[in-house]
Amino acid sequence: MRKLEGKVAVVTGASKGIGAAAAKCLAAEGASVVVNYHTSKEGADQVVAAIVASGGTAIAVGADVSDEKQIAELFQKTKAEYGHLDILVNNAGVYAFGPIEEVTAAKYHHEHNLNVLGLILTTKAALPLFPAEGGSIINIGSRVNSVAPANSLISSASKAAVDAITKVLSKELGPRKIRVNSLNPGVITTEGFIAAGLKDSPMQKHYVSITPLGRMGEVDDVALPVVFLASDDSRWISGELILVAGGE
Is the keyword Oxidoreductase in the record (predicted)? Predict the structure, then answer.
């Protein structure tokens, strides 16, 4: 029997990258998956099609998870389709880099409204769908939270907030048998990384050179730990901030 047979998962920001890989890996272990997207319906539909072609179950639901009304609609559709929720993967997020001189209130709110407030409101809206048996919430943070490189002020602050949220909610939701953990990836070869022209760039070579395992991270390097944290294999793990960075 597959590890997540009969479970229902919502993965935010799942039309590409880590979110898409997580959705596929969760479905491969038997979960029915809600593939959330904001702008790329085409990408989300492709993820759903790949899951269905492999014998899994999934639907795509559009929602901006920095918007409370759209978050509510996301979980209304989840309930209507599947009746409950066992796994929430808070993956949706944005990032930008630049010196403090370029920081504006608008840039700050753009990132924090999704990376921090959106995560909080998404989790809040999901809670009524969890059964009495509990479940698992997996937040996707970032290695930037602790490395805190120059020119990452807003992004580092938002991901540090995700760490704090994970710790707080693990204690708050523990009595409800809901485990809360965070995966903090290093640099991962995603569509965004490639689109930015960073593949085979000096920056990529630098990251590979300082990573003990000697390579870039791939999306499945994060998606597979998502499955572990979603399953009963991690039933005694909560409140953890797990680095997924090749030892760096």
Answer: yes
